[in-house]
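Hey, quick one: can you model this chain's 3D structure?
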Amino acid sequence: MAELVNVDNRGKCRRIVLYGNPVLRTPAQPILELNQDIEHLIQDLLITMIKKDGVGLAANQIGIPLAVFALNPPACNLDRPPLCIINPEVVITEGKVEEEEGCLSLPDIYEIVTRPEFVRIKGLSVEGKPLHMEGTGLLARALVHEIDHLRGILFIDHISELRRKLLAPRLKQLEEMERQICG
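Sure thing. Here's the predicted structure for all 183 residues.
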C-alpha cells in the first residue's frame, strides 16, 4: 500500500508547461537521493496538482525532468489523501479499456485512449520506502498516464495519426503559447 503525504502550505503552485516545451519529451532521470530539494519538489507537485484540479501531475510538467509524480486519489473517487510516487515503474498490466483522456499540459484536448484496465506499479514513497500500488478504472489510467509523462510520452502519442492531424491546429496554438511564455 502506498504511503501517504500530507499536503501543507510549504509548497508553491508552479506553472504547468504546455505542449511544445521540450521538457515534456525529456525522459525523467531517476531520483537517487532524497534531500530538501526533492522535498520541495514533492510539495510543489502536490500543491500544483490540487490547485489545478488534476488527477495526477508529473515533475516534468512543471519543468523538472525527475522521476516523481503526484496522484490525487479523491479525483478517482478513492478516500485517500494525495501522495507522490518516486521512481515509479509499471509491474503488471491486464486488459484494455478505451476512455476519454486529457492532460493539464494539453488544455481543452480530450481524446479516446486505450489504456490497461488494471495496473500494478512499484516505486518509492517520499520517505524512500518501497511502495506498491494497483488500480483499475481512472486510477489505472492516471498511474499509466503519469508514468508515460516521465518517459517523455504524451497521451496524444496513443491516438491515431488521423486524429493527431485533426488536432494539429490546436497543438500549434499550444506550441506558440508555450514559446511566447518561455521567450
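One thing worth noting: The longest strand covers residues 83-94.
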